[in-house]
Each structure stands twice: as C-alpha cells, then as structure tokens.
Amino acid sequence: MKKSFSLLALAMLALGGSSCPSRQDPISGSPTSITPATPQPFDPTLFAPLSPRAQDRRIPVIMYHDIVASKRQKTVFFDCTTDEFKDQIAYLESQGATFISAEQLHRHLVRGDTVPEKSVLLTFDDNYQGFYNNAYPLLKSKKIPSVMFVHTAFVGNKKGPHPKMDWDTLKKLDAEKLVTIASHTVTHPGEFEKKPLDVQQSELYDSKKTLEDKLGHPIPYIAYPEGRGDAETFSLAQQIGYTLGFTVENGAAEQSPNILAVNRYIHTRLKKAWEECQQLVIDAPATVFERNLSPTPVTLQTGTFDGIRLAMVKGGKPISVRATDTGRKSVGEFIRDVPGTVAGMNGTFFVNADLRSVDNALIGPCRTQVENAFFADEDKLRMPRIWNRPLVVWGPKKIAIVPFNPYAYNNEVSLLSLMMDMSDVFLGGAWIVHNGVARTKKEIAPYAARDFNDPRKRAFFGVTDKGEIVLGATMDVITTEMMARGAAAAGVHEAILMDSGFSTSIVFDSKIIATGHTAKDLPSRPVPHAILLNGTLQQPIDPDTLTLLQSAETSVGAISAVEAITQEPIGARPEGHPDRGKLGPRRRR
Predict the structure, then answer these.
(1) What are the tens digits of pLDDT across the range 256-286?
(2) Which residues pair with 392 in a beta bridge?
(3) Whole-Å CA distances, 54 to 14, 108, 366, 421
(4) Phi, psi of 14 (to 5 degrees)
(5) Rounded to two decimals, what is the model's pTM?
(6) 502, 573 Cβ separation under 8 angstroms
(7) Which distant-in-sequence residues (6+ apart) come within 8 Å of 506 by Cβ?
(8) In whole angstroms, what is the distance from residue 268 CA to residue 416 CA?
(9) What is the spatial distance between Cα 483 and Cα 503, in angstroms, rounded to a whole number?
(10) Structural contact between residues 58 and 252, judged by C-beta atoms closer than 8 angstroms
(11) Distance (Å, rounded) from C-alpha 33 to C-alpha 589?
C-alpha cells in the first residue's frame, strides 16, 4: 500500500504527551515530555514516545483478518484458513519464536523493557467469529497471546460470510486475559486520513468509549482502518488517549516512525517478515551498547594489529565540538581553542564535501558540549538513507551507541529517554566492530554509504569493554573492513567509522600522528566536527611510538587551516582523490 502519511511529520509527535516529566525545548522554549530514565510502574494508558532503548530487537507484528475453515468463492486473499494458520504457528515455533502480548511490545518500545530475542506479536482485525471458532482454540491451548481490533458498529453482526463476535464473546475473551481487546474505530471508514477531522475524532473516540463502557477498563490501543492515517490522525489518537497505534506498513516494530504508527506485516508475508526481521538484527546490528566512561590518562599507541598499522589515542573524557566561528578547522585548531583538551580526531561525516567549503552541517543529528544545544538533521530527503547508522550519545558518566531511527530519534526528547544527562550526540558512518568482533563488508554494507569500503586512509571512534575512549586511524591506505579487523585485534570493543580519506586526522600533544595527506608539511583538511579528549597526557614509552611522536609535524600552522587549504598543492591530495597528481599553487605554513 502506498504510504498515506508523512513520516517526517510523524517525528514531531515524539515531542507530544504529558505523562512524563517535562524538559524545556532548547529551540522553542516550550515544555516537552520525556520518558523517565528510571522506569516507573508501567501504565499503558500514559503516553510515551518510542525509546532508543528498544533498538536491541527487531520484532515483526503480524496482521490477520478472518480465520476460515476453508477457502470458498467469497473468500478474500487476506483470509487465512485454519490449516494455514496452524502451519504458520508451527513455522514460527520451529524458528524459535516467542509470542508476546501487546503490553509487552508496548513496554519494550517505549521503555526498552526486555523481551525475548525472537519475539513476535499476532494481531487480528475486524472481530471475526472465525477467530473464536478456528484460531482461539489453538492459541489458548498453546497460551499464545494476541490482539483483537474491534470496529464497534459491527459487533454481533452475523450476516454474510464473515460474521462478527458479539459482546458476550468479547467479554469472555477479555476476562480470560489471553486476548487484548483494542479499537478499530466505529465503522471502519476507508481512506481514513482523508475524512474530516471531526469524523476521524468521533470514530476514534466513540469506539474507545464504547469498548471501555462494555468491558469496564481502559482501551489504549488502536489499529487504523486499512492501516491508514496521517500526522493529524495520529495526533488526534494521542489526544483521545491512545498510546499505541498500528498501521500496515511493512517493517520491524522498532523501525516504526512513531509509537502511534507501529509497523505490521500481513500474514501472507509472514515468512518474509520473519526473515527480514532476523536479518535486520545482524545488519543494524540490533543492540543497545552502554558503558560507564573510564577517563584514564590520555595515551598514544601505534602498532600493527592483524597486519593493519594503526595509530590510537586512548583515555580521557570525550568532548565533541563544531566549528561555529569559521565553519571548519583542523583538529589541532579545535584542541587549541577548547581549554583542557590534549588530543583529538576528525569528526563524523558532513554534508558539503567541497574541500574549500566552510559549511559545518553534519549528516544526522548532533549535540556538542561546547554549543550546549541539539541540532536535528533538517534534510528531508536524507532521512531514508541513514537508517540504522550508529548514533553515539554520551554524558558525564556514560556512553551509549544505538542504531538510528531517523523519524523517531532525530530530536532531543527521544534521546533524553536514553540518557537524561546527555551532553554529546553524533551519527557515525557505520558500525564496524561490535562486541570485540570485526564486522565484515557484507555486514557493514546495508546501512553504510556506497563508498564505505574504498581504499583510503581510514578513521574510527571506539570504546573498550571497560569504557575507555579510543580515537583511531590507519597509517596506510586500506579498506574499512581491514581497519575493523585491526581495531578488533587491538582490543577495541565497539568501533564506529568516522569521516575518512582526506579528513583523517589524529592529533596528540599538538602533533599530527595520522593524516589523510601524503605530504608531511600539510595539516589534515579542515573539518566542521571533531572529537577531543580532556585529560592528563601520558607520554609513550614504546620506542617506535616515541620516535613517531618526536618527528611528527605540529598540528597548528602559521596560518589557519581554512586559509591553508585554499593554497594547498593539489598534487598532495590523498590516494584515490580524482585530482591527485594535478598541479596547484604552493603555499607556506
């Protein structure tokens, strides 16, 4: 089905709700809701947005309609026979699936509560009697939870080939607690998002009230007719009191654009849905990495690891910074201008790759300690291209890395639910080492830029298992996959690909340790973003590293890096650059 809602508009809904503590929006100054850092007793009637803590799973939600004894002349394609249903349950069981309830999914999505690795939720639309006759006996015998979405105007309608359950049956199901009864509006109008808002409001409100009056408890969940709605529909649903809503967009629940627009697969795609979600677990990877920061002395290490020559700076407290005054700076200039910092590296990927540009816009959201403000990525066309890239977040004591949902996490509020005292945020290019294991080209490729594995000087931001920061770069022109092997062999637990090639730059004690240039007398290219380390320097004792440090060029020249880049000899550009070898004006440092 063609998407009938604006995903970008949905992201704004993450700012809504009044059930959680509030924080002032740094741009508008208005209060916004957040999910508490310390989970309170769960109340499904209180609204909370999608949380980054849910990113450790990829759960398929499966949508069924009528379960019929056999296919007949008037049977539609989305009906499922009893035998087909049994086969699908058997398939999921053979795959090691765990069937969870709607509330378990809700807890997981908004708080990151733990659910089994291979979880699945079964849902049924339209209140068919066939569910009770043909599906529920099997579900009950196996204690499999499910959700039934009821359009209240048709309860008890026994006419036609698809009779509906009556109120007595619904009350029985509700009392037995295995089936969650939820709303499907009153009359199930088609093209729901095109209906006048007062019609949408009455359909959403009246069905909720009728179900609550009949069953005697709140009804916080909704499935929209045909899965259709837009930002106004979902906003109305939130105002009326719904806290979890479902569409029919394919995708894992965690990759939904909003808690009121959760993805579902139709049952005819069940095997495909299962395979897609299991593959997503690997590709993302689906994980929430968190460690306490360990601010050890700042040290320099060089060496060969699994055949890969690396330079790495470890320790200290990380600080991210953007060039707000000149647009771009060399890493050495960033260190010079930020008090207390003693080492650093080039930052993440930026929008304008022109060598002489001073644009400081980054790809993905960003927050820096120096600016003390959050900046969303405002490029609407870029959002679909940066799914599942690693989002790095840290505060005074902790660091976290999660796969990025561009519609749900491109705002400060959602990230505060991950870390209440966060100070820094940036989006990396790819997750290249996870749990101390180098990820392969095949594993990295699904969510990285197309040129991620081109041979060039490469840089990474890493964390050890003990929470020690690692800033790393290659000493040779290699692929990202090769760098990942070297980083893992060097003891890096998690590593994120940073901007590379000409941007590659590692600075320690005001000396250029690694650079994307091939000419020693050139500083690395000026960049808009850098990661710096605050701490106590500890000089290397390894003879080779000490020799490298003593012979290294100073990181700040006589003129600024921005000025220098306009005068650089183009022939000094790095290997792989299209203008490498061409003559250009000489310049003095």
Answers:
(1) 999 999 999 999 999 999 999 999 999 999 9
(2) 401, 426
(3) 15, 6, 21, 19
(4) -65, -15
(5) 0.88
(6) yes
(7) 311, 312, 313, 331, 343, 344, 345, 459, 471, 472, 473, 512, 513, 514, 515
(8) 38
(9) 16
(10) yes
(11) 51
